[in-house]
Amino acid sequence: MMDIGTSKAATAAEREPLLSIKGLKTHFATRAGIVKAVDGVDIELGRGEILGLVGESGSGKSITGFSILGLIDPPGRIADGSITYDGRDLVSMGEEARRQLRGNDIAMIFQDPSMTLNPVLRIDTQMIETVQAHENVGTNEARQRARGALVQVGIPSADERLRAYPYELSGGMRQRIAIAIALINRPKLIIADEPTTALDVSIQGQIIHEVKKLCRQTGTALIWITHDLAVVAGLADRIAVMYAGRIVETGRTSDVIERPLHPYTKGLIDSVPSPATRGRRLHQIKGMTPSLLNLPQGCAFRERCEKATPECLVAPEPTLLSGGRSVRCWNPAL
């Protein structure tokens, strides 16, 4: 019989977020000054949840992902904040312990599969090494795990692919293999950094469908980093919109897509082609993303915003709303 106290403790642990980021600041020291790539980010991710982290290039999305994995090299550093994964503090964690987490509990899918795949090693060699780096298993068992992972992501002729070198495969196939490598050790969290951007639309759709299905089947949580709201609309449970190093809006995907609150989010959505906008000029957000070396006073979006007021000269704090929504704006579309 299960002990009631143990059962309650397990239930409480399951309710705790798998990942909790509070006040994260990741800065880079340059000769021109301090680049505040991530400047006070708060994110919570539940077990098995899919979060879409959306924003323009240079908004700090990828640096947020790299910060979670401890992949920030000098002159970059985490200047402030906390990153808690499954009850463990990742910021203060030693490098050896962090290395054991990477590829095992937490995996990453990069935009370019060549960052995952070694061009001079066969696919089976790389996948077997990935398993044996974290588990004491024989080569045959590791090979079967590798084969199963390829089948899991929809790769035909898995045995043939295992014997291939990366250069013998198409870009879409290499990316599927990179996803299989991320999944092979059954991680609790995957961070995907725009992994389908360079692929054909048809291949992109297949990979997104497979990743979503696999997350649902395995209970793996996912952070999907992208500049394309249309991609995460059918993938993510929640969306966090990032601008100039900060999260400006979060909420359930349907809420954010159907009723954006922040002017920047609305601008992103209005710039996506849809049947409703056929034949009409697409909306364009005026201006450019500000330099992270020299952010404008107050709200970083102020100089591009059509709703800016004198109040925006003071940087707004996030406002928590009903339904788990949050917005960082003085004049949201409430």
Secondary-structure-based class equals alpha/beta
Strand order of the largest sheet: 6-7-8-3-9-10-12-11
The mean pLDDT is: 89
Q: If helices are DSSP runs of H or I spanning 4 or more residues, what is the number of helices?
A: 11
Number of strands: 12
Describe this structure in words.
The protein has 334 residues and is of the alpha/beta class. The chain is 32% helix and 22% strand. The protein is built from eleven helices and twelve strands. It has helices at residues 4-15, 61-69, 95-101, 123-132, 139-152, 158-162, 171-183, 201-218, 229-233, 253-258, 263-270, and strands at residues 19-30, 33-45, 50-54, 76-85, 88-89, 106-109, 189-193, 221-226, 238-243, 246-252, 319-320, 326-327. The chain has an eight-stranded mixed β-sheet, sandwiched between helices. Strands 2-1-4-5 form a four-stranded antiparallel β-sheet. Strand 4 and strand 5 form a beta hairpin. The N and C termini lie far apart (51 Å). GO terms for molecular function: ATP binding. InterPro entries: AAA+_ATPase, ABC_Ni/Peptide_Import, ABC_transporter-like_ATP-bd, ABC_transporter-like_CS, Oligopep_ABC_C, P-loop_NTPase. Residues 21-269 form the ABC transporter domain.
